[in-house]
């Protein structure tokens, strides 16, 4: 495991983590991350206790190593209203049932990097989050000096929405963190002042159009009514004149 041999064309497969992965999962975490995780964390991961995870294996490896982890991602579902990023989510995210998927850890052993494994693992997370109707985003933290990870998330269309000063404490030293966010299922950031202004102008214009349409309709009705009244008046006058003519003619004949 320390120096796994990579075939020219490794056959990478993805599956959920399971209890048999416990030891190797702890080993890889210890090798990749400066932060130490409690044993309870690993137990929760491999037993699926409030944590959803995926593992990557190279099925082309010989000597019974074809199912040994060479990469992984661990996540947790949390309520949007209880997260620290509610302010960068849309208004509907405050509803009681809205959720988020938070990426806890992501790692690939060095010998298997540059094979698109991390991208595929995050892709599994996005696919999973998108399958949850109430989920609005996938989010994560990444230490500010981890350029490969930052470039990966940007390439996958994650948005860097915040920088957190001194977020990590490692060996007595504080390090900054970037917060990355990927919206799913129609999730979006709150409206910017410009968007609010544009929406307001659009609403006002729509109101004016509606009002103008009603005025035109009413004016058209008035014109139509005037025309009908004028027509009726003409008919009455014509009838009256006709009656007068008839009376006069009759009178003349009588005389």
Detailed description of the structure:
With 255 residues, this protein is an alpha+beta fold. 41% of the residues lie in helices and 25% in strands. It is built from five helices and seven strands; from the N terminus they run βααβββαβαββα. The chain has helices at 22-32, 39-46, 117-130, 147-155, 193-254, and strands spanning 12-15, 52-58, 69-79, 99-108, 135-143, 159-170, 173-183. The chain has a seven-stranded mixed sheet. Strand 4, helix 3 (117-130) and strand 5 form a beta-alpha-beta unit. 21% of the residues are buried.
The secondary-structure class comes to alpha+beta
Spatial sequence of strands, sheet with the most strands: 1-2-3-4-5-7-6
Number of helices: 5
The rounded Rg comes to 37 Å
**Beta-strand percent range:** 25-35%
Mean pLDDT level: 81
Biggest sheet, open or closed, and with what strands and sense? 7 strands, mixed
Total count of strands = 7
Q: Give the low-pLDDT segments.
A: 231-255
Structure described in brief:
By secondary structure, the chain is of the alpha+beta class.
Keywords:
255 residues, alpha+beta, 7-stranded mixed beta sheet, 5 helices, disordered C terminus
Topology:
Blueprint: E1 12-15, H1 22-32, H2 39-46, E2 52-58, E3 69-79, E4 99-108, H3 117-130, E5 135-143, H4 147-155, E6 159-170, E7 173-183, H5 193-254
């Amino acid at each position: 495991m320390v120096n796994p041999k990579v075939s020219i064309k490794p056959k990478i497969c993805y599956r959920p983590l399971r209890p048999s992965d416990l030891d190797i999962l702890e080993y890889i975490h210890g090798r990749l991350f400066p932060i130490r995780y409690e044993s309870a964390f690993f137990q929760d991961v491999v037993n699926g206790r409030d944590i959803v995870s995926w593992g990557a294996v190279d099925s082309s490896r010989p000597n019974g190593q074809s199912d040994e982890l060479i990469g992984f991602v661990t996540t947790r579902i949390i309520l949007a209203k209880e997260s620290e990023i509610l302010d960068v989510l849309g208004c509907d995210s405050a509803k009681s049932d809205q959720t988020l998927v938070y990426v806890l850890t992501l790692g690939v052993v060095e010998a298997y990097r540059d094979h698109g494994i991390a991208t595929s693992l995050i892709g599994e997370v996005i696919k999973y989050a998108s399958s949850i109707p109430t989920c609005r985003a996938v989010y994560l933290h990444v230490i500010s000096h981890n350029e490969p990870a930052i470039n990966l998330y940007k390439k996958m269309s994650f948005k860097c929405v915040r920088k957190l000063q001194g977020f990590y404490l490692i060996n007595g030293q504080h390090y900054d963190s970037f917060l990355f966010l990927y919206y799913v299922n129609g999730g979006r950031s709150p409206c910017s002042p410009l968007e609010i202004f544009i929406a307001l102008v659009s609403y006002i214009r729509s109101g004016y159009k509606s009002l103008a349409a009603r005025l035109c309709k009413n004016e058209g009705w008035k014109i139509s009514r005037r025309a009908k009244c004028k027509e009726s008046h003409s008919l009455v006058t014509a009838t009256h004149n006709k009656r007068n003519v008839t009376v006069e003619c009759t009178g003349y004949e009588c005389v």
